[in-house]
Design brief:
By secondary structure, this protein is α/β, with parallel strands linked by helices. Helix content is 26%, strand content 31%.
């Protein structure tokens, strides 16, 4: 049996082994999406699949999203919880991730497979376009992350950040070009979305394409100006 060699990455609470990013399983023995799990140095690690998670894809493309230990995160478009579960691992029991999902079927999986076992995950069955409807359930957050494949996805991100993001906090969005405009050049689309974010009081820190993991996608990271 080949011994697994795990190294701490420069990013807090994220690990690396044989070309793959890992998180320490907050719920040992529990899988979420049939991901590979293995033990090394007395800890249980989950392989973070970049073909199943856009945040993992961004990591492989050299972008670190500041979802670190103890962070408070608002996650828009959590689906069934694949990426949410790794965010839960990274922020640890000191952090909390509020997850907004509108579709009932993935929301059931989010509750059944993720939130049921992870006490730092708060599922919210709501429309991310209407943040005032779930404002009662949230506090100020450090990061707003948006993965909602809709034409107005940047506006959804910004509307939520206005209500919930603390000063100096971060926004991050996984943009799907064809969801915004199926005919325009993706490069033009992504530049326009960056402009919208910058005009609303943010400094764009980095933008990366997510190929080969996600075709026609870009990840944009920005910080709220103080």
């Amino acid at each position: 049996m080949v011994k697994k060699i795990v190294k701490a990455h420069e990013y807090e609470n994220i690990y690396y082994s044989r070309g793959r990013f890992l998180t320490i399983n907050l719920v040992p023995g529990c899988k979420v999406y049939n991901e590979e799990i293995f033990r090394a140095d007395g800890k249980e690690y989950r392989v973070w699949n970049p073909y199943r998670s856009k945040i993992a894809a961004a990591l492989h493309r050299g972008m670190h999203i500041p979802i670190d230990l103890g962070r408070r995160v608002l996650y828009l478009g959590g689906a069934s919880g694949t990426t949410v579960s790794h965010v839960s691992d990274v922020i640890g029991v000191e952090g909390i991730v509020y997850v907004v999902e509108i579709a009932h079927r993935p929301f059931r999986d989010l509750v059944r497979k993720v939130a049921r076992y992870r006490k730092n995950v708060v599922p919210i069955l709501e429309d991310a376009r209407r943040p005032s409807r779930y404002a009662w359930a949230l506090e100020e957050v450090d990061v707003v992350y948006c993965d909602v494949a809709q034409p107005d996805q940047t506006n959804i991100l910004l509307r939520n950040s206005e209500l919930f993001l603390q000063e100096g906090g971060y926004v991050c969005i996984a943009l799907k070009a064809r969801s915004i405009d199926s005919t325009a050049n993706p490069k033009v689309i992504f530049r326009e979305e960056e402009r919208k974010i910058a005009e609303r009081g943010f400094k764009v820190l980095k933008s990366v394409r997510l190929e080969p993991f996600e075709e026609g996608h870009s990840m944009i990271l920005a910080v709220k100006r103080k």
